[in-house]
């Protein structure tokens, strides 16, 4: 028995010694047999790249990845004078203290917004109110690069402007969607730089099409969406579920300054027309005849003895305008332009604006019980002097 005990104790001693030596010199031999974790953790591949797999159903990552590189941040600044104290308007005060306030250092105010690169050579489409009155414009790309930009042209009546990046580099561009394919209920993504926090993507649907009479711009044909649009998103992209541009985010309805789920975007068809004219001519040229128009309500239709409310009531005619020279009078009802029917004031404004200045157009007029065809030599629409205030 004693012999067996000695053999056992020697075996245990040798085993402990071997375990000590292995744990000291080759600890990996012991760890290789141990479980890595008691929790089943799925890890990314060791090369640091995500595993290639199809996107989950309902994910809009492909659309965002396709369009985000072409959406830029726009930083503007302008010089403003220091506030003048009222006492410096007093001649006696100025006599004793001079014009020191006139030599006060001028300050700079900063603004921000978004834009969309629409051509590889660096043309950027944005809102006019983003760059209005700015004397310095800088554009930051999604990849961190920054470039100065110059103003190519702007159109206050649609709140659009075109910039050109001051570099010879080539840029990622966005793809324009087919305007006729957009429908109420389609999913859209709004991409921009809200509140200056950085590029952000929000998702919603098309709530309505053809929104007008909002008092934001002269020419209105807005896409309404509930995708969150906030200050700083102005000029950014509204894209469809494939990442194609369907509109330029421009305004929100809000009582607090933040998104309430009612945002408006300029449709891509209008944005493209303005873009092409500005790049070609530096400005947008529209037709003009010099009339003030009014919507025909059911009450007005009854008073004029009309069976319907289609057409546009001529409420006033400017002196010396093409309309006055052609014989158009206040109280006339415009029902057609060059053979196309006028449904309302919006369609009349768009038809006249689309006429080339210098051309002669036929206006179909209803005056009392008489139908008249008057030939009007179209003039050029004057540049607006006052730009309407709009939510950013």
Automatic annotation (TrEMBL):
Q: Which InterPro entries match?
A: Chloro_Bact_Ser_Proteases, PDZ, PDZ_6, PDZ_sf, Pept_S1C_Do, Peptidase_S1_PA, Peptidase_S1C
Q: Where does substrate bind?
A: 129, 159, 232-234
Can you name a GO cellular component term?
periplasmic space
Q: Which SUPFAM superfamilies match?
A: PDZ domain-like, Trypsin-like serine proteases
UniProt entry tagged with the keyword Protease: yes
Pfam families with a match to the protein in the record: PDZ_6 (PF17820), Trypsin_2 (PF13365)
SMART domains, from UniProt? PDZ
- Organism's domain of life? Bacteria
Q: Which residues form the PDZ domain?
A: 278-344
GO annotation (BP), single:
proteolysis
Which residues are catalytic? 129, 159, 234
Key words, A-Z: Hydrolase, Periplasm, Protease, Repeat, Serine protease, Signal
Under PROSITE patterns, the record lists: PDZ
Subcellular location, record wording: Periplasm
A GO term for molecular function: serine-type endopeptidase activity
Q: Which family is annotated?
A: Belongs to the peptidase S1C family.
Q: What is this protein called?
A: Do family serine endopeptidase
- Which species does this protein come from? Pseudothauera nasutitermitis
């Amino acid at each position: 028995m004693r012999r067996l005990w000695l053999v056992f104790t020697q075996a245990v001693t040798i085993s402990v010694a071997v375990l000590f030596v292995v744990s000291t010199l080759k600890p990996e031999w012991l760890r290789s047999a141990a479980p890595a974790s008691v929790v089943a953790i799925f890890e990314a591949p060791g090369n640091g790249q995500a595993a290639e797999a199809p996107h989950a159903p309902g994910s809009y990552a492909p659309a965002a990845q396709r369009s985000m590189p072409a959406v830029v941040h726009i930083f503007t600044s302008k010089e403003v004078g220091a506030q003048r104290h009222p006492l410096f308007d007093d001649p006696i005060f100025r006599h004793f203290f001079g014009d020191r306030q006139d030599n006060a250092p001028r300050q700079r105010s900063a603004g921000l917004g978004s834009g969309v690169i629409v051509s590889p050579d660096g043309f950027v489409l944005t809102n006019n109110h983003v760059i209005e009155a700015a004397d310095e414009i800088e554009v930051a790309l999604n990849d961190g690069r920054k470039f100065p930009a110059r103003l190519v042209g702007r159109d206050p009546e649609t709140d659009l402007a075109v910039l050109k990046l001051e570099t010879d580099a080539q840029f990622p561009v966005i793809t324009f969607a087919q305007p006729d394919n957009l429908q109420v209920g389609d999913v859209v993504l709004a991409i921009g730089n809200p509140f200056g926090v950085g590029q952000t993507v929000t998702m919603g649907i098309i709530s309505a099409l053809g929104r007008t009479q909002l008092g934001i711009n002269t020419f209105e044909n807005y896409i309404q969406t509930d995708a969150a649009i906030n200050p700083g998103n102005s000029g950014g992209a509204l894209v469809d579920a494939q990442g194609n541009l369907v509109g330029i985010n421009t305004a929100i309805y809000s009582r607090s300054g933040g998104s309430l789920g009612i945002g408006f975007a300029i449709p891509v068809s209008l944005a493209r027309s303005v873009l092409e004219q500005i790049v070609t001519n530096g400005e947008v040229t529209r037709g003009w005849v010099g009339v003030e128009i009014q919507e025909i309500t059911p009450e007005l239709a009854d008073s004029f003895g009309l069976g319907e409310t289609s057409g546009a009531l001529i409420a006033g005619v400017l002196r010396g305008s093409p309309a006055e020279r052609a014989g158009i009078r206040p109280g006339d009802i415009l029902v057609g332009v060059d053979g196309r029917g006028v449904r309302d004031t919006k369609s009349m404004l768009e038809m006249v604006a689309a006429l080339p200045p210098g051309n002669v157009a036929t206006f179909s007029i209803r005056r009392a019980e008489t139908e008249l065809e008057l030939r009007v030599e179209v003039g050029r629409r004057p540049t607006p002097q006052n730009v309407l205030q709009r939510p950013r």
